[in-house]
Structure formats: C-alpha cells, structure tokens
Amino acid sequence: MIIKVVLPLLAAAGIAVAVGEVLHSQQVVPPVAPAGAMPEAPFAETVAGVGLVEASTENISVGSETAGVVTRIFVKLGAQVQAGDPLFELDGRPLRAELAFKQAAVKAAEVALENAHFDDAISAQLTSKQVNTVNDREEKRFAVEKAQAALVQAQADAKMTETNIGLLTVKAPVTGQILQLKVHLGEFAPDANTAATQPAVLLGSTAPLNVRAEFDENDAWRVRKDAAAVGFVRGDARMSIPLTFVRFEPYVVPKVSLTGASTERVDTRVLQVIFSFDRKHLPIFVGQQMDVFIDAPSSSAAQNDPK
Fold it and tell me: How far apart are CA 126 and CA 143, in angstroms?
C-alpha cells in the first residue's frame, strides 16, 4: 500500500523538477552593461591603436654604480626633483677609511719628494766642488723624478677613492618626478646591472606626458605625422585629450602584449608612434593605457598625397 502511494508521488516530483529546469534554462539573461562605454572614433576615416602613457623623457631606471647598504634616502615617492639632486646614499665607511689611508700615503709621498729635492740640492753643491762624481749627481736627479712619480701615483689613488665615494650618492640624471621608489633604509641595494629588472628609482618628466601608441604594420602606411590624433582614457570614453605628434620610432617591432611580460608576443609587428599631451587636471598617470585614434586618409587619397 505504501509503495503504491510513494512511487506516484516521487514520479510527480521528478516531473515537476524537470519542468522547472526546462523553464529556467529558457529564460533570457539580459546582457551586462559594460563598466565604461567604448570610445568612438572621432574621425570619418581613422587608424586605431593602443598606447601606453610614459614620461616625456621616457621612463628612466636609475640604479647605483656600486652595491651597498642604503643609509640615507633624500626623496619621497611622487616628489619633483631637479637634475643633480641626490636620491639616495649607500654606506661609505669602508671607502672613507680607505681614503684616509691613501691621503696619508699622499702626505708621505710629499715628504719623500721634499727629501729628494734636498738631497739633489746638496748633491749639486758637492758636484760643483768636485766632491761627488757625476754618477752620484745623476742618481740624486733620478731619485727626484722617482719621488715625483710616486706622489702623482698616490694622488691618483686618493682621487679614485674620492670618486668612488661620490658614486655612493645616486643623483637624478634629469628633472622629473619620482615614479617608483624601491629602496629602503637598511636594505642592500645591488648595482644597476644586477637590478636591471627592478630599478632602485624610476623617474621621468611628467610635464608634458607622452603616449607610445602601437599601430599594426598593415596600417602603418596610413599614419601621418601631420594628422590629427585623439587619445581616450580607458574606462571613461568621455575623457579624451588631443595628442601632438612627437616622432616615429623608425624600426617596426614585434608587438608586445601590454600585460607586463616582455616575453609575451603575438604574431604581428607594429609601428610605434610617440605623441605628447598636457594632462592638465585629468587623472592620467604614467603606465596607464589609452585608445588612440588618428585621422587617416583612404587608400586613394594616400596614393595621391603620399606621406
């Protein structure tokens, strides 16, 4: 009796579940609106490319000539610096001790030279009185020259150490803004060759900014330096800014994915074009991507009016 009642109920429940799944699968899911509207080309005929914002001096990776422990940091992230301003300093106690030793060697060489001059003067007097031989006179003269050379060598050694001490203070090569600061007090900073992929300081001039735009090689012939160009900030199609042509990068390079991995490439080549712009009050930052559109002629117009 129980089986006769339960089995029909289970069958009815299974049918209800199946019908519900079918109805649910047939529901139309409304499309999700994009976070930001896509930019529309402002020209009737255009060439589009993707650009990366960079400093007008290009992004300069500043590193130390030598390795050492960071003892002083003179700048803060985002600060404006002038060419020649100190950025950070490494521990110089070993080199300063070495300099003191070499300066003492310079002093000893100066005394040795004075003594050689004194002996040479005495020898000259004795030779004039025919007390010394000519050989004795020449030995004293050569001793003076040897002492002079020793003094020059000691001074050069001290100067080299002074130069090495000066290299411990890393200075800004250009006027610009500190974009990245990857050194901290007490850390061991490797030399520039060792830290090629992670510079101690990244800086560049941000007034104005540049954008490095890449255009497919198939469209390279349509890009003109005197054509109008506009850049759109990613995420807000309303935020556009006119671009000013700076230069072509004359070598067409393999396209590099803008994910940050330098080894990630696709099977195409691109022409890189540098534009500049004044960001004014717009929140545009170095390293940000932009969509770049250039007013481009049609095929027939380009043939009649070559670049």
Answer: 16
Q: Which of 166-180, 253-267, 278-292 has the highest mean pLDDT?
A: 166-180
pLDDT at 188 over 60: yes
CB neighbour class for 89 (10 Å; exposed up to 12, middle 13-18, buried from 19): middle
Displacement of CA 258 from its chain's centroid (Å): 16
Task: Give the chain's domains with CATH numbers.
Answer: 46-56+206-304 (2.40.30.170), 68-91+171-203 (2.40.50.100), 92-167 (1.10.287)
Whole-Å CA distances, 187 to 60, 156, 172: 22, 32, 20
Report angle CA 89, 66, 73 to the nearest 5 degrees: 15
Contact criterion met (CB below 8 Å) for 53 and 287? yes
pTM of the model: 0.71
pLDDT digits (tens, 9 = 90+) for 114-130: 999 888 888 777 777 77
Amino acid in the structure at residue 211:
V
Give the 3-state secondary structure of residue 97: helix
